Amino acid sequence: MRERIQILLIEDEPDYVVLMSAHLNEACGSSLHFVLECAESLQEGMDLLAQKDFDVLLLDLMLPDSQGIETLVKARAQAREIPIVVLTNLDDEETGLDAIAHGAQDFLGKGKLDARLFKRAVGYALERSRHLSQIESILGNSPYGMVVVDTDGIVRYLNPAAEALFGKGTKEMLGKPFGFPVQPKKTAELRLPGEDGGERILEMRVTEIQWRKDKVCLASIQDLTELRRFEQIRAEIKERRRIDQLKEAFLSTVSHELRSPLTVIKAIVANLRDRLAGPLPEPYDEMIRLADANVCRLGRVINNLLDLSRLESGRARISPAPVDLGKVIEETAQEFRMTAPGKKMNLETDVPPDLPPVCADPDMVAQILCNLMDNALRYARGRVVLRARTVDTDQVQVSVIDDGPGISEDKIGELFNRFVQVDRPTGGSGYKGTGLGLAICKESVRMNKGRIWVESVAGQGAQFHFALPRYGGFEATHACLAEDKGTAH
Amino acid sequence: MHAWRKIRVLLIDDERDLVHALVIRLAVGWGLDVETAADGRVGLDKCRSFKPDVILLDVAMPVMDGWECCRRLRADPETRDIPVILMTAWLSDDLVRRAEALGAARVLVKPFDEDELMGLLRSLPKNGKGR
Questions:
Q1: Cβ-proximal residues to B11 (8 Å cutoff; 6+ apart), any chain
Q2: Contact between A267 and B15 using a beta-carbon 8 Å cutoff
Q3: Does B18 contact A at CB distance below 8 Å?
Q4: Which of A171, A361, A400, B49 is the most buried (most CB within 10 A)?
Q5: CA dist B107 to A265, B59, B63, B69, Å?
Q6: What is the per-residue pLDDT for A149?
Q7: Hey, are the CB atoms on A260 and B18 less than 8 Å from each other?
Q8: Does A317 sit within 8 Å of B114, measured CB to CB?
Q9: How many angstroms separate the CA of residue B76 from the nearest CA in chain A?
């Protein structure tokens, strides 16, 4: 199929129009077919340009309504995309070159014109113009900002992406200093103030190119802000994961190293107690009992320490479920009544029958209560009360109340810290605390979106309270899922 | 009438001291027939000759650890039905899941006392089948 090329000829001399028409017909070949339209003045030509699409504009510079290079400038302003071939008088190369400098694709001397020259000029003009529009399309649509900066640091060209990156139009940047140092073969980071008070990071790669007769710098610029932010987040996640793994590995190692010898000692002590290796005199019984009690105590400390580390490392998983605190309280009380130490202890429970369930991890709740009970029984003189109440409509509060010596005001603040034991009862009748129970309670309560605190007046016993969100209903569910921390006083 | 036979326990653990103490407990204290191995590979060999009723298997061991040993015990039709009690000093959700996936009968957390061990042994199926 032949390519149809629409040509607009703006020429006021009828002889040339006829001549041109003849050359055109002659130039038509198997692959090209020229269609000519003529205008006699610049104005008429511009009107035609506005109405129709043309592929090439043939322009005489000496027209009734415009003369000289001015004609080209005006025509180009209207026919931006269309290649222009200027028609000059015989041998007027100077005007022709001037026209090319002003954006014409080519020039043809009227006197020398023949079909072959004509065809070549139009063909070249079209081809060059197509290349140019392709390059412009590439530069215009590239996501990379392209800025040409000359040796004086002046911007000689920029593409739309560069305008967008710098937030300035071509008019504001073209012919003005670029404002950033540009060194060939160097990659630099430009830091610009961002919209939200943050910083935008642009990466600029610079290459040296030929621009007309000068060597200039072409800067390719890319916005790395999002990428950097993403990389940073990824690095943070990776680091956190690494630390978590280290913690887990550490806990696992510590656990093995502490528990393995303890397992051996425990087994040996039990063997001695049961005289499995032969008879031992009776006085050994007490020594063996003490060894066993202390091995058990060490086991508890290790367990508590590991539990606490696990809670604090954030690796402990909680499985919230509806928990009937009344039931947990009764069961715990029953357990302590059965295994209670020799002391005569009055262990009371005070739970209303309509106590609503809480949203918490059942095992953790049992452990919290168990730890608090353990403390209360160690310090109480003769009475411990376990009480549960609904408070603030959406919380259930549990109180463990003892009639022991209480806690002096200056000690209350540090009570929930690890290894704090207040006025530890002397005498050491077997069971001792680990100093970690309350720290575990604090962490467990926090993880279950609750709070824990203590009230005490020295000499008048202590009241340990913890409150957990009620199960069911929007607010409680919200509390179950909420990210805000519980408080521990 | 069947001849009375002692329950056979194969104890696989690299901790010599613990093995020593447990052998006294199991053999002298409870009158069980005990064989020991210091790693999983030796354990597998002894399992074939000793034909235990139950295996006490430590998780962390050199040469072949408890996981691999347990996997091979399960893969072998001759040993797949012998109940395995995994012993570990570090109990995690992950470990429990893995043990279940391997079909270990129970997990025993160190340090344990003789009541826990006895309780576990008693809870195992008498015919040595199932999990």
A1: B19, B22, B23, B26, B34, B35, B36, B37, B55, B56
A2: no
A3: yes
A4: A400
A5: 20, 10, 21, 15
A6: 92
A7: yes
A8: no
A9: 30
Record: contact B111-A263, CB cut-off 8 A: yes
- Chain A interface residues (partner B, CB cutoff 8 A): 251-252, 255-256, 258-264, 266-268, 270-271, 274, 276-277, 295, 299, 317
ipTM of the complex: 0.84
- Nearest residue to A486 via CA among A447, A436, A454, A455: A447
Residue pair A27/A113 in contact (Cβ under 8 Å)? The answer is no
Spatial separation of the C-alpha atoms in residues A222 and A159, rounded to whole Å: 13
B29 contacts in A (CB within 8 Å)?
271, 274, 276
Between A255, A267, A295, which is nearest B18 by CB? Answer: A267
* pLDDT for position A477: 54
List of E strands, A294-450 = 321-323, 346-350, 358-360, 383-391, 395-402
Looking at chain B, which runs of residues are DSSP E strands? 8-12, 33-37, 54-58, 84-88, 106-109
DSSP helix/strand/coil, B11: strand
pTM strictly above 0.90? no
Quick: pLDDT tens for A362-420.
Answer: 888 888 998 898 888 888 888 888 998 988 888 899 999 988 888 888 777 778 877 66
Nearest Cα of chain B lies from the Cα of A285 at a distance, in angstroms, of: 17
Are A408 and A371 a contacting pair, CB within 8 Å? no
* Residues B110, A268: C-beta atoms closer than 8 Å: no
What does the pLDDT read at residue A46?
92
CA atoms within a 13 Å half-sphere pointing along the CA-CB vector of A318: 23
Whether the predicted pLDDT of B59 surpasses 70? yes
Taking the CA of residue A116 as centre, how many other CA atoms within 13 Å lie in the half-sphere pointing to its CB? 1
Distance in angstroms between the alpha carbons of the first and the last residue of chain B: 28
Chain B residues within 8 A of A252 when measuring between CB atoms: 90, 92
Give the mean pLDDT per block of 10 residues along chain A (489 residues): 82 86 79 85 91 89 89 85 84 83 85 80 84 87 92 90 88 89 89 83 92 88 91 92 83 84 91 88 87 86 82 76 88 79 76 88 88 86 88 88 84 76 53 75 88 86 90 58 42
Dist CA B106 CA A46 (whole Å): 94
Q: Do B21 and A295 touch (CB under 8 A)?
A: no
Helix (H) or strand (E) holding A109: strand A106-109
pLDDT value, residue A223: 92
